[in-house]
Amino acid sequence: MTRRIGLIGCGDVSVVHVEAIRDIEGLELVGVADTDPQARARAAAATGVPGFADTQELIDAAGPDAVHVATPHDQHIGPSLTALEAGVHVLQEKPLAHTLEEGRRLVDALESAGARPGAPKVGICFQNRYNLASRRLHEMLGAGELGAVRGAWASVVWTRSADYYRARPWRGTWAGSGGGLLINQAIHTLDLVQWLLGGVERTDGHVATRKYGEVIEVEDTAELLLHHPGGITTSFFATLTAPQHRPVELELDCERAYVTLRGGTDGGLTIRWADGRVETLAERSVTSGGRSYWGVSHELLIRDFYARLDEPEPFWIGPGEAMASLGILKEAYRLSGVGPAA
Ligand SMILES: NC(=O)c1ccc[n+]([C@@H]2O[C@H](COP(=O)([O-])OP(=O)(O)OC[C@H]3O[C@@H](n4cnc5c(N)ncnc54)[C@H](O)[C@@H]3O)[C@@H](O)[C@H]2O)c1
After folding, report:
1. Ligand 1 centroid vs 78 CA: distance in angstroms?
2. What's this model's pTM, rounded to 2 decimal places?
3. Are 65 and 166 in contact (CB under 8 A)?
């Protein structure tokens, strides 16, 4: 059976979705939509499918089974709700939404829709949960192989330029993005940390705009202490002010081993056992038109979303799961007294 797919939002990240839809057997791109006529025309020409001005138009004309939503943060929930109401499955980019309130609208809509048999599903693109290293670490923690976790450290030390924000002004505004570094870049690592360590019960921390204040109103730097169940904490540092990208790092101090997870093209897992053995697991490497710091696992997530579509359960990384990282970072903003209250 071929599944008909629509793409909503034809900007930077859309190339990764187009590649995955092309490469995964049983998927066919049937239309693209973008509110910007130029972006729409470029995408239609590049993919050979019709371009539409909005989600409803695409659904009415192209009859997709699912849409991928890759729009700016403040434009996530609108297209996703339109699709859900039409009974169309949704694979939406992170974050869940630019505000908690908008995020809850999708959680609620999915809950109401979920009561019906054959109800549409919603997946949120936290593709780094599909990295070999993250999956292995999650398995080991679940099986108790590492012993008790004593504490964790995570960092996202990346670079951006003023032009990155000038090219897409929504990225630098509270109204368009709902935040800066935490909601746009470090959210993947926040999601991993809370997924691996059983959630976050309390957040301490502070965010600041250190380098790009002339072009953005949101933060480019953050330091947090995340409190997990059982009294464990993660020290979390993130910034976009570095001269070069460093690999994302996540380190767990456990009773039986010290574990280092590194992102990036030569990333993977290193387990230094207390008895002196050292085990390593290299990350997969893939070639894609996407950027290396987006990780290697978008296609794996998309493939898995479609492979599980006929199962009765909701997709495992749905809006409810995605509320966790949104909640953590919004709390950091609240504590720092920045951004709108929601
Ligand atoms: N998972 C990842 O690793 C990853 C990586 C990059 C970006 N993203 C996410 O993807 C999303 C898009 O990011 P980007 O950098 O590609 O943005 P972008 O600005 O390059 O592209 C967004 C496109 O959406 C269009 N658009 C805006 N509102 C629309 C609407 N209502 N309907 C249809 N089209 C609309 C814009 O005209 C633009 O062409 C963001 O949520 C971002 O956080 C995720």
Report:
1. 13
2. 0.97
3. no
